[in-house]
Design brief:
Oligomer: single chain
Distance between the termini: 74 Å
Strand content: 25-35%
Number of helices: 3
Strand order of the largest sheet: 1-2-4-3
Structural class: alpha+beta
Order of helices and strands: HEEHHEEEE
Largest sheet: 4 strands, antiparallel
Number of strands: 6
């Protein structure tokens, strides 16, 4: 005997907040960041004029046409431009992108303590792809450096 499954409702994910239409909704922000592609590069400068700094760049991109069908279609240029302006103004989106870029910096320079970062973000739309470019400059902290002793990481103070 077969049992019938219940019918489930799928709610559409709103792109903009209903109270303030110039703000990206949290649900759409979650959907956006769950479907990103990340390209990151960076270099640690141990010597020279810029010694003791990490320079990095991360490009976070999301193809809006590839998002699941639980959200409204962003087919018109007007809606995509609204999304672009809302994403440019969104502190949450910029902060989240900055955290992704800084985690890449920590990944690339694991044995050095990092100081306060300088972060620059730019948001642009190329066709159906929303791109967030994040540039970071992170100096080494003066608190000390990590050293490896066998399988332990310890901090050495200067």
């Amino acid at each position: 005997m077969k049992t019938l499954q219940k019918i489930t409702k799928v709610r559409a994910c709103p792109v903009f907040c209903s109270e303030r239409p110039a703000i990206v909704s949290r649900a759409f922000e979650e959907l956006l960041f769950s479907h990103i592609e990340l390209l990151s590069e960076g270099v640690w400068k141990p010597e020279g004029e810029e010694a003791g700094r990490f320079f990095g760049s991360s490009m976070i991109s999301c193809d809006l046409d590839a998002l699941p069908p639980t959200r409204p279609r962003l087919d018109s240029d007007e809606l995509r431009q609204r999304l672009l302006h809302a994403a440019e103004a969104s502190v949450r989106i910029r902060l989240r992108a900055s955290r992704i870029a800084l985690s890449q910096a920590r990944y690339r320079v694991p044995l050095r303590p990092l100081g306060t970062a300088w972060v620059e973000t730019r948001v642009h739309l190329e066709g159906s792809v929303l791109r967030i470019d994040v540039d970071v400059v992170v100096p080494s902290s003066s608190l000390g450096a990590w050293e490896e002793h066998g399988d332990k990481r310890t901090r050495r103070y200067r």
